[in-house]
Automatic annotation (TrEMBL):
Pathway: Protein modification; lipoprotein biosynthesis (diacylglyceryl transfer). A 1,2-diacyl-sn-glycero-3-phospho-(1'-sn-glycerol) binds at R154. It is found in: Cell membrane. It is a multi-pass membrane protein. HAMAP family: Lgt (MF_01147). The chain crosses the membrane at residues 28-46, 71-91, 111-128, 135-156, 192-210, 217-234, 246-272. Its main location: membrane. This is Phosphatidylglycerol--prolipoprotein diacylglyceryl transferase.
Amino acid sequence: MPIAADLLAIMPFPNIDPIAFSIGPLAIHWYGLAYVAGILFGWVYARRIAADDALWPDNTSPISRAQLDDFIVWAALGIVLGGRIGYILFYDLGAIIDNPIRAVQIWNGGMSFHGGLTGTTIAMILFARRNRIPVWNLFDIVATVVPCGLFFGRIANFINGELWGRLTDVPWAVVFPTGGPFARHPSQLYEAGLEGIVLLLVLAALVYGAKALKSPGLITGVFICGYALSRIFVEFFREPDKQLGYLLGTNWLTMGMVLSSPMILLGLWAIFRARRQAAAVQH
């Protein structure tokens, strides 16, 4: 372990105010704007995909733009409610029992991706049934655009100076105002790159290059596996939440790893299911 003197950051934290702007007594946080930006960018991208019949089975899109517009409200509720409830249950239950008002302060601690995924999944199932849309097709279109939200969310984490990485002496290390006078991995940017940019490009290549949407569930499986592997990898550079620390007496196992590991099996199951269904149709 390098001594403290060796951990002084080479690259200072940009010190961006977490509050983007204020309207009277109302403070607009970058964190909230990140969620709005992620949903809007995802919505625009999803509308483009939904409008391209050639990408879908039988060259017919399973969802109209009007239905997609209606789904935005359902998705937003699933993301926000599921994400916040998931964070409370997985990461911050004790603190919120002591101070219940903390539960609605989404900029204080933030959101859980795994909770947001659960909330959005419930919203997708209910919406698909109500509108007679094949649920795997809806899963796929949402999975394709989720990296947009992940990218903006992780950038907001960086701006807030939260969820920072472990101590390091790499040249791009950053000293965070809340992380002590030491150099740390900017793990939020690692996640923005992997979960956001890289995963978005991989899924786009499958959608437009391999026509993967013609095999319902394939994109969903790849997304779930891709996110889980990215998250587990970055957890080796990310400081665990201080209220939890490392799990099971180790110096490496984190809650993020525990929650992400079953996703790999779930994603592989979705991929194999999609390929099996596609093979059955061809025969």
